Amino acid sequence: MERVIESAVCPFCACLCDDLVITVVNNEIKEIRNACRLGVAKFRACTCTYTHARTQASQRLKCPRVGGRSSSYDDAIAEATEILRRADKPLIYGLCNSSYEAQRVALAIAMRKRGVLDISESICHNILYTGSGLKKYPFYYALLDEIREKANVIVYWGSNPVVSHPRHLSRYSVYPTGRYAMRGVTDREVIAIDVMESELKKHWLLQVKPGDDARIAEILTRLVSVSGDCAAQDIDEDTDIERLKEIAERLKRALYGVIFIGLGVLGVGSEDARHNVDAILALVDALNKGEGRKYVLFPMKGHYNVMGAVQLLMRETGYPFGLDFSRSSTTGTGTGTGSSIFEPGKTTVMDVIEEGEVDAALIVGADPATSFPGDKVKRLAEIPLIVLDPFETPTTSLASIAIPTAITGIEAEGIAYRMDGLPLKLNKIVESEYPSDREVLERIYRALF
User: Fold this and answer.
1) Can you give the pTM of this predicted structure?
2) What domains lie within the chain, and their CATH numbers?
3) pLDDT at position 240, please?
């Protein structure tokens, strides 16, 4: 009863590493090869406690609960359906740790109930979609495979992949051999720009002050655009201009470069993040004006299928997150009428919770009780709360109804989109007593009619 699954896809982060080799004996995972420590922990989670590297250990949610009491799946789903049926404007949130198929069903529920659908992108990478810089500069993008083959200058800005995406450097950026880097890391320049020292400090590290990213990007833009000392005029005396000049020279020497930006740039206050993105977009544009040189800008996505959710919403509605279908005449699948369904600052999860617009919530594979501000969590706890999750979390402890689900990519199959938008099939590695979130959502959707 031994099986070996080759080329399995890891469902931990948006790298979706697809070279794992997993040995299963009697429906139990015995060996995992090629996965990082975070991926190993995720695969081990189906049979034991799941210990995330940045959170406390989390136990499996063993059975459905209604009002804090153990329940059957039939009763829990019936109660969840009744809550959504009575709601005038429910919130559906999360989905970035769900399969593309489950995301489609959640979208159908939101449209059917004329509710609000939002994903974690609205509180992570939202500025990339709403900032003014995209109106001035093109967004230079590429597949990770192209970056691996061609990039000889690599910048991690506000991102520490050693902690957040441990195999990113070995699979897609620094260490693998490529067309322009036949000796791997020996042929690549690596630059880290961050407010803290990181494991990348053995390469070129520029430590910046909090809130100083936009100014540094603006100085680098001047240094790569203007030759001589003119570019260094009127710069504060406490700025290490010589180091910035050296970094600018390294950036200019690239045949192909990439700037990976993380939440250190995007996850700060909205105005600071907006300025950061606009300034880095301007830097990339200036670098691409150099002859024989190409640069791309690449956001470091976190959850393993956040890109799937964005792709789905863009295809079906034209907008990436924060959709209020009560503003649209559309009740089935298809494009909503006008941009009124997407209005950042009014239709995203934080906005509708703060304004008290939603009267019930369906949370799928997310833990807002841990990641949201306290006042928003308090508001969520005041309305009927349905949570679908494989694990016990602070959010499941607040839930009116908590329904355990299988872990997609381990106990259930599905499609997920890598951080560069490439779709990959997630395998079902072991059998499970739990239904997938897709199956639970489909039952809820059918019962709403």
Assistant:
1) 0.91
2) 2-51 (no CATH), 58-122+304-409+430-447 (3.40.50.740), 127-299 (3.40.228.10)
3) 79
